[in-house]
Design brief:
The chain is α/β, with parallel strands linked by helices. The protein has helices at 3-12, 44-54, 66-76, 87-90, 107-116, 131-143, 158-168, 200-205, 207-217, 308-326, 334-353, and strands spanning 34-38, 58-62, 81-83, 95-100, 120-124, 148-151, 175-183, 222-230, 242-249, 252-259, 267-274, 277-283, 290-295, 298-302. The longest helix has 20 residues, at 334-353.
Length: 365
């Protein structure tokens, strides 16, 4: 136990046993609907690996690059069909859920087509790049009695899931502060298509943390966002790799710091401050994290199992399938996800203009 943990324990009354925290992806009670995957890019290896591990059945893999679809099919689900024709997925009555994992611009018409064909949808993140379009798709799903969820897989990273559960159980009271610090080297993007994304840090990467932020604060409304970007000395990547954002809520605050050019050493920390306690997670990277809960009763250190990859991808599909099984809205619904997107879009405009922005008023990426 670190010296800081010892000091916290001394102040709070000593070490105590960890509370029961249900942070693992949900286990289904019944046989789930079968899945069709649209888009077979590199990230879908994590989708398919997670589904195979969970015992979910994938019937079809579709991609405009047929060879890519065949490759994924052969590796993960040899009995599935590989196709470049979306109708092979949408017209298949045995497929109940469509996992759409294409690039963002192509995604909305595919989501709409899947919903109009009567399929439930899991959309890769970011859900949309236009909030009005997102609200229209959410309304379409609701009008047709279908579920539309977003693959914000970071929510089911073990440490994030554990902190969400701690908050939901009221163990630290009302959350008034969220403070994230990520220090890692994102310079691997040089020479890749990612090098052409100006908002590589605050959008492509940080979209996970804008989403997590809203999970932690619950229904609190973000009222103002200020963000900035700058280039690190000696960085070779085209996009600025140093970014930060301040978010004001009704009765709470948040800071997000991204040092994307940490060439020696790495550190990932999250601190949630509540009216009755504090929970923090820290480690050298996204997959190695230690979670510590501090309340008046004492300090508890949670022993967690699993990693973001692949557990996060299993978690997103498991939550959608569980919601179908239980007849409820999934916690990562499209409507829920729009809040994090609104804060992210406001942060990007703030970084571009140097002026604070109100989340929700910036409608497009």
């Amino acid at each position: 136990m670190s010296d800081l943990n010892y000091d916290l324990a001394t102040e709070a009354g000593g070490f105590i046993p960890s509370p029961e925290i249900n942070y693992q992806p949900k286990t289904l009670k019944t046989k789930p609907p079968k899945i069709g995957l649209v888009g077979a890019g590199g990230i879908t290896s994590h989708h398919l690996n997670a589904y195979r591990t969970a015992g979910y059945e994938v019937l079809a893999i579709c991609d405009l690059d047929l060879e890519r679809a065949i490759s994924k099919r052969d590796e993960f689900y040899p009995e599935a069909i590989a196709t470049k024709d979306i109708s092979d997925v949408l017209d298949n009555p045995d497929i109940g859920v469509v996992d759409i994992a294409t690039h963002p611009p192509e995604r909305p018409p595919l989501i709409e087509a899947a919903l109009r064909s009567g399929k439930h949808v899991l959309s890769q993140k970011p859900f949309v790049i236009d909030l009005d379009e997102g609200e229209r798709l959410v309304a379409l799903a609701e009008e047709n009695g279908l579920l539309l969820a977003v693959n914000q897989n970071g929510r089911w990273a073990p440490h994030v899931s554990a902190m969400r559960e701690i908050v939901s159980q009221g163990l630290i009271g009302e959350v008034i502060g969220v403070h994230v610090g990520l220090h890692w080297n994102h310079g691997w993007t040089v020479g890749t298509p990612f090098d052409e994304i100006h908002h590589l840090v605050l959008y492509d990467f940080a979209i996970h943390w804008f989403d997590m932020l809203h999970c932690y604060v619950g229904e609190k409304v973000a009222t103002k966002t200020y963000a900035s970007l700058t280039r690190a000395s000696e960085q070779k990547a085209k996009p600025p790799l140093l970014g930060q954002a301040l978010v004001e809520f009704e009765g709470a605050q948040a800071t997000l710091v991204f040092d994307g050019y940490t060439t020696v050493g790495s550190l990932d920390t999250t601190i949630l401050v509540g009216t009755k306690g504090m929970v923090r997670s820290e480690g050298p990277n996204l997959n190695e994290q230690t979670v510590t809960l501090t309340t008046e009763a004492g300090v508890a250190r949670l022993e967690l199992e699993g990693t973001w990859f692949p557990d996060g991808f299993r978690g997103t599909m498991a939550e959608l399938l569980s919601a179908l099984e239980e007849g409820r809205e999934p916690s990562h619904s499209g409507r829920n996800n729009l809040r994090g997107l609104a804060t992210c879009f406001a942060a990007l405009k703030s970084a571009d203009t140097g002026q604070p922005q109100v989340p929700g008023q910036v409608r497009k990426l």
